[in-house]
Amino acid sequence: MKYIAAYALSVLGGKSAPTADDVKKVLSSVGIEAEQERLGTLIRTLEGKQLHELIAAGSSKLSTIAVSGGSGAAAASGEAAVEAEVKEEEPQEEEADVDMGDIFGGEDDY
């Protein structure tokens, strides 16, 4: 994801087709050392493509995804997760009743 973000930042910075060096420069500016293999794969995959067209195509695919309640299995797994969270609550500590006498100098009942 960081490679795609760096590529997108290069496009926003004015490069219509960022090179591997452009992406490396963005990544190194935030202290990330680029892996040459991943960087090469990204540049080969996006070669000859316009980023705004890829984003538009991806957005249209996202609009076809159903955002309803989901299947029974998904709901059941969600319920299991909630139950697990409830079970993981830490037990509350009980306060011990410690008789320290009257620490403010009052009368003792002894």
What features would you describe in this structure?
The structure is a single chain. This protein is mainly α. The chain has a domain at 2-62: Arc Repressor Mutant, subunit A, CATH 1.10.10. It contains 5 helices and no strands. The longest helix has 16 residues, at 72-87. The radius of gyration is 29 Å and the shape is elongated. 8% of the residues are buried. Residues 86-110 are annotated as: Disordered. Belongs to the eukaryotic ribosomal protein P1/P2 family. This is 60S ribosomal stalk P2 subunit.
- Mind telling me the CATH class of the domain at 2-62? Mainly Alpha
- Report the CATH architecture of the domain at 2-62: Orthogonal Bundle
What would you call the structural class? mainly alpha
Strand content: under 5%
Helix content: 40-55%
Mean pLDDT reading: 76
Major sheet details: none
Q: What is the CATH third-level topology name of the domain at 2-62?
A: Arc Repressor Mutant, subunit A
User: How many individual β-strands?
Assistant: 0
- What coarse outline follows from CA principal-axis ratios? elongated
Distance between the termini: 73 Å
Please provide the ordered H/E string of secondary-structure elements.
Answer: HHHHH
* Number of discrete helical segments: 5
**Poorly predicted runs of 5 or more residues:** none
Region (Disordered): 86-110
InterPro entries: P1/P2_N_sf, Ribosomal_P1/P2, Ribosomal_P2
Keywords: Ribonucleoprotein, Ribosomal protein
GO molecular function: structural constituent of ribosome
